Amino acid sequence: MPDVTYVLPLRRDRFDERATAELSRYLADLPGRAEVVVADGSPAPVRARHTASWPDAARTVAVPAPPPGCNGKVVGVLAALATVSTAHVVLADDDVRWDAATLDRALAALDDADVVVPQNVFDPAPWHARWDTARSLVNRALGHDWAGTVVLRRDALGPDGYDACVLFENLELERTVLARGRRVEHRPDLFVVRRPPGVRTFREQRVRQAYDSHAQPARLVAELALAPLLAACVVGATRSDGARRAAWTAVVVLVLGSAVLLAEVGRRTAGGAAVWPPTAALWAPAWLLERAVCAWVALGWRLRGGVPYRGTRIRCAAHSLAELRGATGEEPR
C-alpha cells in the first residue's frame, strides 16, 4: 500500500443513485494506490447509503454540520485529515477523476514540493463546461488556474490545518502552506479530469467565483472596471456616429478580442492544446461579460455580509499571505 491517503469531501442533501454509482466505480479503482477516506457531511440516512455503496473501497468519516460562516468542504477535509497518518495526501472534490499515471507523476513531484496543484479538464464538455473552461484558460495565461484537487505532504499544513471560514478554500490552503515557509508547485501540464456540474449548479457558481476575486485585490479592481468601461463604450457608440462610433466600437472589440487572445495563450501553455480544442478560447468573451456583471453582484453580497453558501454567509474569500504569515510568525523568504 503506497504511503498516501485520498481524501474526498462529500455532501449531498439527497441520495443520487446514478452519481453515487459512478463515484463508487471510481473509488473501487483507488484502494490499490491509496487509502481512501470519504469525509461525508450528508444527512445521516444519505451518508449510510453512501457508505453501503463503497464498503470495501473507502472509509467514511462522518462530518458534523459546519459552524455558521464556515465552508463545509474545509470542515470535512479537516475532519478527515485528523484521522490520516500517511505522509502524502490527495485532496479531491467528488467530481475529480485522477488516472493512475497522472497521480503517480503528481506524487513524484512531491519530492521537490510540499503541495502540487494540477490542472482540471472537464470531460464531458457540454456548453456550460466550455463556458467555464474559458475562465481556466485565462487563469493559465495570467499565471495559473486552481484545480478542485491538490496533492500535498501531510505536514505541509501543520497541526491546525487551514481556516474553514473562507469561500476560496484552494487559495487559502495554498497561502497557508506558503505562510509556513513551504513550497507550492503549480503543474499546468498535469491534466486531471473533472466531471462538469449540472446547469443549475453552474449558474449558482457564477457569482461565487466572482467573489473569489476579493482575495486578489488587483484582479478585483480590473474586474470591477469592466462593466463601467463596456457600458461607456456602448453609450458612446449609440450617441455618436462616424469615426467616433467606430472608435467606441473598436474599444469593445479590443476588450473582447483580448479575452480570446489571453485564453488562447492559456490553451497553448504547457501542452494545453492537446486537451482543449481550438474553439475553447472563443468562449472567453462570454465569460468576460459574465464576470463584468457578477463582479458587481459579488461586491453587493460583500456589503451585505458575505456570499450565500449552503444556508450560511461566508464573508472572507481568503486571507492574504501577509495575514497568514503574521498568524504563524513566519518571515517571508
Describe the 3D structure.
This protein is of the alpha/beta class. An 8-stranded mixed sheet has the order 3-2-1-4-7-6-8-5, sandwiched between helices. The protein has a two-stranded antiparallel sheet with strand order 9-10. It is built from 11 helices and 10 strands. Helix content is 48%, strand content 16%. The chain folds into 2 domains: 4-199, Alpha-Beta Complex (Spore Coat Polysaccharide Biosynthesis Protein SpsA, Chain A), CATH 3.90.550.10; 203-328, no CATH class.
Across the major sheet, the strand order is: 3-2-1-4-7-6-8-5
Q: Which second-level CATH architecture of the largest domain applies?
A: Alpha-Beta Complex
Relative strand content? 15-25%
Radius of gyration: 21 Å
The number of domains: 2
> For the report, how would you describe the main beta sheet?
8 strands, mixed
- Give the tally of β-strands: 10
Query: Which residues form runs of ≥5 with pLDDT under 50?
Result: none
CATH fold category name of the largest domain: Spore Coat Polysaccharide Biosynthesis Protein SpsA, Chain A
Number of alpha- plus pi-helical segments: 11
CATH class designation of the largest domain: Alpha Beta
For this structure, what is the CATH homologous superfamily of the largest domain? Spore Coat Polysaccharide Biosynthesis Protein SpsA, Chain A
* Overall pLDDT: 96
Helix content: 40-55%
Distance between the termini: 36 Å
Shape call: globular
What is this structure's SSE topology?
Layout: E1 4-10, H1 17-28, E2 35-40, H2 44-53, E3 59-62, H3 72-81, E4 88-92, E5 96-97, H4 100-109, E6 115-122, H5 127-142, E7 149-153, H6 169-179, E8 184-194, H7 199-211, H8 217-238, H9 242-268, H10 284-303, E9 307-309, E10 312-314, H11 321-328
Parallel strand pairs: 1-2, 1-4, 2-3, 6-8
Antiparallel strand pairs: 4-7, 5-8, 6-7, 9-10
